[in-house]
Write a structure and sequence with these properties.
The structure is a single chain. By secondary structure, this protein is an all-alpha fold. The protein has one domain. The protein has helices spanning about 10-25, 25-35, 40-75, 75-100, 115-120, 125-155, 155-185, 190-200, 200-215, 220-250, 250-270. Helix 1 (about 10-25) runs parallel beside helix 7 (about 155-185), helix 2 packs parallel to helix 7 and helix 3 runs antiparallel to helix 4. The longest helix is centred in the first third of the chain and has 35 residues, at about 40-75.
């Protein structure tokens, strides 16, 4: 296998564009929260399960394996396998620590429904605090997600498109979660929408900062390790956020059906590019 370290500007711009699209989809969730009256829970459940299926399958079958191949080729059979496994669980540990440091009440990945804008009776000063912490939390969470999307798209644009759409679907309920407390804190739908929309910029910023920091040190070792880390981040996001949120919005079996459908579609799309 060739180690793809010589990227052209076209590939970089495509990867960055996909990451920008994925990040700014928080605005879709925000618009739904502020304009719709009810949450379409069945569709959202299927969509979130589908996203999890895409991300889990591509992480294990494509991204992790590519990273492993690069590390084995550059570091040898034994060291390469050990490093790929260490990178995978290192990615899980990294995103788990970020998740742990953010209290659940301010965590933008906690499921909320549109109806909660009418149901919650929280004090104004507490809502302001939630709004501020939500904006910070969304940026922290989306930073590694942006790097993951960018790295996958840089290596394989076809896989990058699938992951970008999966992350975009994932960000829709995230936008809802951000809009609800911000709207109640400020009383302004406009402010809630724009804060939620702009918070999605953390993903392309994460991609850009991560790439600029790593670019001077880019080597087969760094690139292979990065692939393992990205795979771990995506698997953790799927198991810790996407599937639990899918079940919180709807039925267990719908989430599983979406999961299997996402895996199947990703498997077929990869086979078509053989």
């Amino acid at each position: 296998m060739n180690i793809p370290l010589d990227f052209g500007w076209d590939a970089i711009l495509v990867a960055f564009g996909l990451t920008l699209f994925a990040g700014l989809s928080t605005g879709i969730g925000s618009a739904i929260a502020l304009l719709a009256k009810r949450t379409n829970t069945r569709f959202l459940t299927l969509s979130l399960g589908f996203s999890a299926g895409v991300m889990i399958y591509v992480s294990f079958v494509e991204i992790f394996q590519n990273g492993r191949d690069i590390l084995v080729q550059s570091q040898g059979e034994v060291a390469g396998n050990w490093l790929s496994v260490a990178a995978f669980f290192g990615g899980i540990l990294f995103i788990a620590l970020i998740d742990k440091l953010i209290p659940s009440i301010e965590n933008p990945h906690e499921a909320r429904r549109i109806e909660e804008m009418e149901e919650e009776e929280l004090k104004k000063h507490r809502l302001k605090r939630i709004g501020i912490f939500t904006a910070i939390a969304i940026g922290i969470h989306n930073f590694p997600e942006g790097l993951a999307t960018f790295t996958a798209a840089l290596n394989d644009p076809a896989v990058g498109v699938a992951i970008a759409f999966a992350i975009a679907i994932h960000n829709i309920p995230e936008g809802i979660a951000v809009s609800v407390p911000v709207y109640y804190a400020t009383g302004s739908r406009k402010k809630a929408f724009w804060l939620s929309f702009s918070s999605g910029l953390a993903e392309p910023v994460g991609a850009l900062v991560g790439f600029l920091l790593l670019m001077p040190f880019l080597s087969p070792l760094v690139f292979g390790m990065l692939f393992g880390i990205v795979a771990g981040i995506m698997v953790f996001i799927s198991l810790d956020e996407l599937l639990p949120t899918a079940e919180a919005y709807g039925e267990h079996h719908l989430a599983v059906y979406g999961l299997v459908a996402g895996m199947a579609l990703m498997a077929v799309s990869l086979l078509l590019f053989l």
